[in-house]
Design a protein that fits this description.
alpha/beta, Spore Coat Polysaccharide Biosynthesis Protein SpsA, Chain A, four-stranded mixed β-sheet, 11 helices, 19 strands, globular, disordered N terminus
Length: about 375
């Protein structure tokens, strides 16, 4: 491995905030998706994301990629981020075009800038450790044509995450560095069990670090049709023609995740072709993906009842492991277990906690019924 640079590299976090958060319906809607909601405190998910990035970068260096329905809300919630750094995708194209756009924007003037990609809706409890790991990743990414991924320690055979097969340790220390052997997207349960038993697999938490030059070149190599589109969009940024160019060219980009576009193509027969390294995401990471996982997070695994209501009066009789969101109402639970109840006034959700992953299907059904106003 190359020696790290003695001077601190410029760091530009890119927050991906274009998701719709359908599994948190009915609180999450198209115009107020999960990332702009305060699910576990007073600050919203995206506000907490930028709060921890303040330890690492100036707000003027932060970029946010979102959509037209959320753009103004995010601008209001993140007043410290320059308005021109909040970009609204003309069409949803998954994470590869969003990540790569930031690289093409920065490459012409600052190709050595380290770009960090961060989802906007994760929960990270140990912020100091998070900053320590990211600083180590920035230093490593700046030292050459390297791709850095963060691997979350796997604790169960989860089929909803991608997996990183880790190889040998190439640097010891407080933030150990391991080579990456292979990426596998969302395995079936049997394979996930094998990965867990093997002990050298980590979940892919969706946090990546690379220089603008490294990412732009990777897109040119693996997605050559996408690269010239993004170059033209980046060239128009800051000009009166930008909105028109963005709207015309961005929808022509391939709809593909950064994992499939760049990371997996660099793996062949179980061996990664280029320098890709994994750092441990051992900072109490949680991808709160549904009401059931939010309940588990809020109760810290004790699985007691959690009632989110502005009225402090509530009553529980022979009721356990329930989650209720009902602002302004007195809540009474009698003889029920493992339920999720969410009341938003215009909609009422009742589901078994173990089925809360399926809540997104309700949004699909409402669209089929022509009830777009409820999604």
């Amino acid at each position: 491995m190359d020696s790290p640079s003695s001077s601190a590299p410029r760091f530009a976090p890119v927050i991906l905030a274009g998701g719709s958060g359908t599994r948190f319906w009915p609180r999450s809607r198209q115009a107020r998706a999960k990332q702009v909601l305060a699910l576990d405190g007073e600050r919203t998910m995206i506000q907490k994301t930028i709060d921890r990035l303040h330890l690492l970068a100036s707000p003027k260096d932060v970029w946010v990629i979102t959509n037209g329905l959320l753009e103004e809300t995010i601008a209001q919630q993140l007043p410290e981020v320059p308005r021109e750094n909040i970009l609204s995708e003309p069409a949803a194209r998954n994470t590869a075009p969003a990540c790569a756009l930031a690289a093409f924007l920065l490459e012409p003037k600052a190709p050595d800038t380290v770009i960090g990609v961060f989802p906007s809706d994760h929960v990270i409890s140990d912020v100091e450790r998070f900053a320590e790991v990211i600083r180590a990743g920035i230093e490593l990414a700046a030292s050459g044509e390297k791709i850095i991924v963060l691997g979350v320690p796997a604790t169960r055979p989860e089929t909803g995450y991608g997996y990183i097969e880790q190889g040998e340790v190439v640097r010891e220390g407080s933030v150990p560095v391991r080579r990456v052997r292979r990426f596998t997207e969302k395995p079936n349960h049997r394979l996930a069990q094998e990965f867990l038993a093997a002990g050298n697999y980590a979940w892919n938490g969706g946090i990546f670090l690379w220089t603008a030059r490294t990412l732009a070149n990777a897109i040119r190599e693996h997605r050559p049709a996408m690269a010239p589109l993004l170059e033209k969009i980046a060239a128009a940024h800051g000009t009166p023609e930008f909105d028109q160019v963005f709207a015309q060219l961005y929808p022509q980009c391939e709809n593909i995740s950064i994992d499939y576009a760049v990371l997996e193509p660099r793996s062949a027969k179980g061996e990664v072709k280029s320098e890709i390294y994994c750092l441990p995401a051992d900072f109490c990471w949680n991808d709160i993906g549904c009401w059931g996982s939010l309940h588990e997070h809020l109760t810290e695994g004790t699985m007691e009842n959690k009632i989110d209501a502005t009225d402090p009066v509530h009553c529980t009789i022979d009721a356990e492991r329930n989650y209720v969101y009902a602002p302004g109402k007195v809540v009474a639970l009698v003889g029920v277990n493992d339920l999720v109840v969410v009341d938003t006034g215009d909609c009422l959700l009742i589901t078994a906690r173990e089925r809360s992953q399926d809540v997104g299907k309700v949004v699909s059904e409402l669209k089929k019924c022509g009830r777009e106003g409820l999604v």
